[in-house]
Amino acid sequence: MRRIKKYNLLCACVLAISAVASISVSAGMAKRKVTPVIRYGTAETTAATQAANQQEDKNSEGKSNIITDKGVYYLSENSKYRQYLWKNADGSTPDYKAYVFEPEVFNGHTVFVDPGHGDNNAPEANQKREKYYPVEDVLLKPMKTSMVGEKGYGVGVEARDSKNIYDKTETEPEFSLKVALKLKQLLINKGYRVVMSRTDFNQNISNGARSALAGETSDIMVSIHSNTGKNSGTLSFYPGDSDYISGSTYPGYTSIMGITKTNIELSKKLAENMESNITQATGLKNKGTHTAVLRIFSYSTIPTCLVEVGFADNTTDAKILSTKKDEIASSMANAIDQYFNK
Ligand SMILES: [Zn+2]
């Protein structure tokens, strides 16, 4: 079984699109034709963005009444993202699904809680491939990205197996799930509906599918991760053309992906709330809120943020990650409360 590569770079775990140019592509992942939705650098850009905003308004109205099958929500058949998501080994389409938890009295807000990564013992999680950017390659030209053609496909999600150095047992997918389940319960108690990308250790779902499902079901998305890289502190990310992780800028990234200015501003606010609440509650160092170019953002149609709570290979951080999960989860719930109750 192929083991997961070692991570030495800051935030490599979140699979920054720009940091994976060397990953080769599996045979049989044919490029598909798609009708472009957003055109960059033309007079249509503004109109397309306005149309996207109007569509978001419609979507958010519909989200108060999503239909589930015994608490499971399936990605709609006509999702524009379907053609870019990973397929089963036999080429068939997997169930792209999320798990919905209803509060006793709904406060009108739905939060998508995403525990980063998945099952470490599922090698297929590292072999299924997904397009980095869910648009036609021709639209990527202004971004000056190398991730086009065959290089434009990478693993859908990466299961990390490096252990927390304080408790020497907990992996990142385990940490993120434990915090997410605590956060889920706190939010339900506050009246939020919660949608989760996974609820167990043996589940895997691609980063693109997480965002696509979030966009159909929820008002905001929070993706929970822990970091490695011999550093210390909390980092919060939101979508932007400048990628803090690689230090590169990708002109037009947000516009090409159809990420609206409104959603960028709201994502920033959400990320800032997360950063300040987590660091104040746990004592983790505040390493700031930054823009990033990540696949989980590329498929996003709602305000979204990704939080690297702390460094699992730093002794001080690792102890907090291991022993202060209640504080981490409650600070995240408070950040979400602040977001909706300005
Ligand atoms: Zn991660």
TrEMBL record:
Pfam families: Amidase_3. GO terms for cellular component: outer membrane-bounded periplasmic space. GO terms for biological process: peptidoglycan catabolic process. Keywords: Hydrolase, Signal. One of its GO terms (molecular function) is N-acetylmuramoyl-L-alanine amidase activity. Residues 206-337 form the MurNAc-LAA domain. Residues 1-27 form the signal peptide. The keyword Hydrolase applies. This is N-acetylmuramoyl-L-alanine amidase. It comes from Lachnoanaerobaculum gingivalis. The lineage of its organism: Bacteria, Bacillati, Bacillota, Clostridia, Lachnospirales.
